[in-house]
Prior knowledge:
By secondary structure, this protein is α/β, with parallel strands linked by helices. It has 2 domains: 217 residues, Spore Coat Polysaccharide Biosynthesis Protein SpsA, Chain A (Alpha-Beta Complex), CATH 3.90.550.10; 70 residues. Helix content is 50%, strand content 16%. The chain contains 10 helices and 8 strands. It has an 8-stranded mixed β-sheet, with helices on both faces. Strand 2, helix 2 and strand 3 form a beta-alpha-beta unit. Helix 9 runs antiparallel to helix 10. The protein is elongated, with a radius of gyration of 25 Å.
Amino acid sequence: MAGNDVLYLVIPCYNEEAVLPETARQLLNKMNSMFERGMISRESKIMFVNDGSKDKTWEIIEELHASNPIYSGVKLSRNKGHQNALLAGLMTAKDKADMAISLDADLQDDVDVIDQMVEKYYEGNDIVYGVRSARKTDTFFKKFTAQGFYKLMQAMGVEIVYNHADYRLMSRRALEGLAQFKEVNLFLRGIVPLIGYKSDIVTYERHERFAGESKYPLKKMLAFATDGITSFSIKPIRLITSCGILIFAVSILMLLYFLAVHFMGRTVAGWTSMIISIWAIGGLQLLAIGVVGEYIGKIYLETKERPKYIIETVLDD
């Protein structure tokens, strides 16, 4: 084990004043433990990224930095969302660290597996994924929707690590690879596996949130899943094409059937079949327009090439 490489812990924060002091304490203990064992350089940092918080999150980050230079801070000019905040932290750390580990501020990610991630890094892995071994703390609904999300993404052809969120280690080389991806619609869980390089996993059990409220309610989870699918797969459009072909084939069969009935003199006028057909075709058309519109919207945002984030302040003495 080399033991002198610089590690940056990158933690996106949005309204985390309730949990941040405890998160800082636990991460500091973990870093000190790794310093004492010679696993990492003493130039390593704990970097909090303030994603436009409306509470005292940034004030707490400033206090932490003033109390101990191991705490670093990045303040975005406005709220840009978890994925953009995480990317901002990783790109800030890229030129200063040999490796960076991203994790959430709510202490649900088990900090004790950080050692294992670093060990995997020294074994030659550029990316180490933190993978949940179980979902004992989840409600039935949360477990069902989460597992359904990963299965749906895989069915849509998206290369994604099952039961992995954004708890991962990336080497500087992997971070440089990540920097080459220019899309505005960020879905890091899908982008990181595309980088390639040697990778491995560590497993852990996710804890209960220490304090505060979840920043991913059902509405945001659905939007996140939609972004992931439309950013990495065109299968929804192909499914619409398949449905169109199927409906066209059925319509030909129905035409032949009605012609046969007509010439046999058994034509029966009825509203039911007509109304059902109108609603079915109309619904399919609206669905098709919606899906195609989603992709057009993605293209629209990508062509603007607006910045994914703007950094207002960096505390990293």
